[in-house]
Design the sequence.
């Protein structure tokens, strides 16, 4: 799958474009702002963009009103078609958020239920009890996602619902040329629905990718040959920042060994999960880390561990926001992209990742593991790369067998005569390719 060798860039469009939180119904071509950011996205090394919700919604995008209409606050379908075409022309794939577990209260079929009650032809699209009541005092009860009544749960066993969603996906592919979907709360979706979605999308576009939002549990239940191609690796998201904050590399490396290591019981060896240090739902990494000097080495870990690295817009220059400030703070509007030392470093890491078969597809082996530093090997047979990560304020000398007497650092292009020892600078990393 094309995603295996990709670097993703996530944009939350409503926040990115500075749209009002409530849908005011006033048309504005804000989404074309992405056009001005394409050079930055390319320079950063990303070759795929994942857009959080872009379709007409009540407020934050996840309460959809119309699956075939770009949100009025973002612009028109033609505006978004222009954005997708420009991204494609620059070699950047497009993945959209597929929000199929629930819709907003402004969704046409739910409005019809509220108006026509028992006589609504759409009443079986949802889970309705006409003898109950909702938090909105509708005079009927309906199931909302995890108790949120602004998110009306869809009945994904209803053939009309399935047809409505599939028709929208086909439209997105034909109208915008999209390359995949990130499925919101995929852990809530009906598994038979996911199987049918996989088959439907594969027929329309053989290399169409489905990436599910999964939190914990066994990802193999959803990521397999019948359902999802990939999913969000939340287990390692937590392990990344926690390992640096506690100065305990054992946590993240043991998680990676559990997921991708050489043992027979390894869970996800051969799979490519979507990896990240932050996104639109969690604190930005510059706010999560207790030591800002760890920004470079944590990104070095992200781009060298197994998986598909994803960068959240703004975090590449160290933007801050804490979850306690509320979701709007996490989804900020930046007038222009910034480039600083961190941005340049991430660009180098991203290009090193894309251009290394070992970093994209290699097996994972732990070579050196201490509290403040680690070395692990990525090996795809014809290429070996050793990622050496140092979280300490002091340089550290490490010893390991690289099976070669010459190494080249993919980050600095510096060549080393290797005699079994290497020094990792403070708060830094090396990507050592065996020659």
Sequence:
């Amino acid at each position: 799958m094309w995603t295996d060798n990709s670097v993703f860039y996530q944009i939350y469009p409503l926040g990115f474009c500075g749209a009002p939180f409530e849908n005011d119904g006033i048309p504005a071509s804000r989404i074309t702002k992405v056009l001005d950011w394409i050079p930055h996205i390319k320079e950063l090394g990303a070759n795929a963009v994942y857009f959080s919700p872009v379709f007409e919604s009540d407020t934050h995008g996840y309460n959809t009103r119309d699956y075939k209409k770009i949100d009025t606050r973002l612009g028109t379908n033609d505006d978004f078609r222009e954005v997708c075409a420009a991204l494609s022309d620059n070699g950047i794939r497009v993945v959209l958020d597929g929000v199929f577990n629930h819709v907003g209260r402004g969704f046409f079929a739910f409005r019809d239920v509220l108006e026509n009650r028992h006589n609504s032809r759409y009443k079986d699209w949802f889970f309705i009890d006409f003898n109950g009541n909702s938090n909105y005092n509708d005079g009927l009860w309906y199931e909302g996602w995890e108790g949120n009544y602004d998110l009306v749960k869809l009945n994904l066993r209803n053939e009309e619902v399935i047809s409505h969603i599939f028709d929208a996906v086909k439209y997105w592919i034909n109208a915008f040329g999209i390359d995949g979907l990130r499925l919101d709360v995929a852990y809530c979706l009906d598994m038979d629905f996911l199987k049918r979605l996989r088959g439907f999308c594969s027929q329309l576009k053989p290399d169409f990718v489905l990436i599910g939002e999964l939190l914990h549990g066994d990802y193999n239940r959803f990521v397999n040959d019948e359902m999802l191609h990939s999913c969000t690796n939340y287990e390692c998201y937590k392990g990344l920042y926690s390992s640096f904050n506690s100065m305990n590399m054992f946590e993240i490396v043991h998680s990676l060994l559990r997921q991708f290591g050489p043992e027979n019981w390894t869970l996800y060896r051969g799979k490519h999960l979507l990896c990240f240090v932050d996104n639109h739902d969690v604190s930005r990494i510059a706010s999560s880390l207790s030591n800002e000097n760890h920004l470079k080495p944590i990104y070095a870990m992200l781009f060298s561990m197994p998986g598909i690295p994803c960068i959240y817009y703004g975090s590449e220059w160290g933007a801050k926001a804490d979850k306690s400030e509320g979701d709007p703070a996490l989804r900020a509007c930046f007038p222009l992209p910034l480039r600083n030392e961190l941005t340049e470093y991430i660009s180098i890491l991203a290009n090193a990742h894309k251009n290394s078969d070992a970093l994209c597809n290699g097996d994972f082996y732990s070579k050196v593991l201490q509290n403040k530093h680690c070395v692990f090997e990525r090996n795809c047979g014809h290429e070996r790369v050793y990622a050496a990560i140092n979280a300490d304020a002091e340089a550290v000398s490490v010893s390991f067998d690289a099976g070669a007497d010459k190494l080249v650092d993919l980050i600095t292009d510096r060549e080393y005569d290797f005699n079994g020892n290497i020094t990792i600078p403070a708060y830094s990393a090396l990507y050592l390719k065996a020659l």
